[in-house]
Fold each of these.
Amino acid sequence: MTAPIPEEIHGSFLTNPFAELAAEIGQAELTGSLRISCDGKKYIVYFVKGVVRFAVSNARSARLFDILLRQKRLAVDDLRKIPNFAIDHELVGFLESTGFLNAASRRELYVEQIRGILIDLLSQQKGDWSFTHLARLRDGLSFDVDTGRIMTDYAHCLPIDTVLGRFRSLDETFAVVQPASADVEFTADEAKVIDCLTDEPASAASVIGRSGLTEMAAIKALYALWLSGRAKRSN
C-alpha cells in the first residue's frame, strides 16, 4: 500500500537546493505549489504532473510591468494611465482590452516572467520552502517554459566540486527517461552517458565504466541529465 503524501512538506535550500527540488517533483510527477521565502523575496512555483507551469514572485524584477519597461515596450508615462498596473492580471487584462496584447504576446510575456523567476531561484543558496499538493493552478495560467533547458544550462555552470558534493555514493542508480516533445541539446559527454542508460536502473559506478569518461566527467553528465529530466535518480 502506498503511503499518502503529506499535505505539506517543508525544507531548506541548504539541504534541498531549488534545482534538486524541481527535479524530485518532476521525477515524482507531483501536482501542487512550492512556496519559497529567501532574503525578503517570496515565490510560488506551480507544478502540474511534475512540470513547472507557472510562477510568481514579489520581486519587482519579476512583475510584468517591470519586464515591459525593460523591454521598452512601455514607458513610465504609459503606466500612469493604467489602473492597478502593479497587479499582473489587471495589467494584462487592460493591455488585452486595448489590443496591446494578443493571445500569443500574452503567452510570451508570462513565459518571460516565469523563466526569470526560475533563474532567480536557481541563484539562491539560502531559503525555506514548503510544498503542498492541495494548491492548484488557476485555469488559463499554464505555460510551457522549457524547464529542461533552463536546468541543463544551470547544471553546465556548476563547478565540479559542487556536483561531486551532491552525490552520496556511486551506488546511486540512474535510468533513462524518454524526452518530451521538445528536447534539449546535450554536451558530447552527456550524449555518451545517455547511450549507457536504459529503462533498468544502473549504478553510477557501472554507467561510469561503460561511458569511457573520467569519473568526474560522467558524474557531472549524470547530474545534468537528472536535473534536465532525462534521467531518473534513485538510491
Note: The radius of gyration is 20 Å.
Amino acid sequence: MIKICLDAGHYSKYNQSPCNKKYYESEAMWKLVEYLKEELLTYKDVHVVTTRAEQEEDLALYTRGQRAKGYDLFISEHSNAVGNRVDNNVDYVVVYRSYKNKNNADELGLRLAKVIANTMGTKQTPRTATRKSDKGDWEYYGVLRGADDAGCPLFYIIENSFHTHPGSTEWLLQDANLKKLAQAQAEVIAD
C-alpha cells in the first residue's frame, strides 16, 4: 500500500491574482488537491489523506507537514507569483524538494515538473529547486520541514506555474484544466 498526504496551499481567499480577480491560489489549489485525491484513489493499493478537512481551516505550515507522519509521499500544491504585479514573462513550473535530495527526490520532482509544464503548456523550462535555512541545517519551507521531521521519505511543494502570468491564471481558473492536471500528476505518481 502506498500512503499519500496531500496539502492545499493556503486557506480561505488567499493570494488573489493581479491578472484575474476571480483567481485565488487557495481556492484553485483546494480544487486541485480534491481532484488529485480522486484520481489517486482510482489506483489499487493507494491510501490518500489531506492535511485539512475544510478549505477555510487555517493550520500552521509545520503542522500541515507533520500530517505526513507514516506516509510515503507528501505534496503541497501551490501556484507561484512574481510580487503583486502582472508578469507576462515568467511562466514555469518548479517543484521544491528535499535540499538533501533524500531518496533521490529530484527524480520524481523533475518528472512532476515536466508533466505539469506539458499539461499546462508553459513556455519556460520546468525545474526542481531547494531552499534551506540560513544556517543550512534544515528545510526552509515549514511544510517541508514538518514532513521531513515526521519521517516522510519524499516531500514536495509543487508550484503550478504563476498566477501573476495571465495565461497560466486563466488556465488554472478552469475546472476541466485542474482535472487534467490532477490526472497527469496522478499518472506520474502511480508510475
Note: The mean pLDDT is 97.
